[in-house]
Give the backbone structure.
Amino acid sequence: MRILERLKKFRNRNTKEYWDSVYGSEIESGRIRRNSSILKLVPLLADRKDILDFGCGTCGDVKLLSQHLHGLNFHLLDHSHKAIEFARKQYLHDKDDNGNSFFYYTSLTEVAGMEFDAIISIQVLEHIDDYTSVLDSLWKVLKEGGLLVISVPVKGLRDRHREHVNKFTIKSMFEILAGYSEWVTISPRTYSNRSGILATAFFCIKKESPAGPADRS
């Protein structure tokens, strides 16, 4: 393993134990993370049946979505057992009044044989060393014609958050996702309240043959 990769792994604090602690503190204080920009995805997801949220945390985003969507199956995956147990037992449970159902997982291997009409991953890839392997795994379980929605910070080297082991820009993330699909949309975008500078962006790609990981040479 190259020295840079070793240093990256050593510096990566994004362990299961770390996020169990972070989410445990948030749960105790009643501060559930929510990103209101997620509601702009409602029209895209309304006609989907099975939706996977990879890196769902305590499921604040799914809670927002589920209040505007009906009769869907939300599959919620996070490596933090504490976050998943909170969502399952206290926050979302198994069903809601809109006819939505919720299913819970703590590993990608648990969903490896499944297929999803849409996959969302909000503010996750910046925390993962080998994000390309994760993208490949998500692409495999996405149905033909399905949507993959990724949100990441796009500050580039200006991103100095200690939990972020990857630094993305609009250009770099577009190039990564264009390797999977010719259909790439960038919207919505969010800006820093303090500086007004572009902070995060949502990228949406559609799975259509023949594009896919095997074509990325």
User: Anything to note?
Assistant: The chain has one domain: 3-215. Strands lie at 50-54, 73-77, 101-105, 116-122, 142-153, 184-191, 198-206. The radius of gyration is 17 Å.
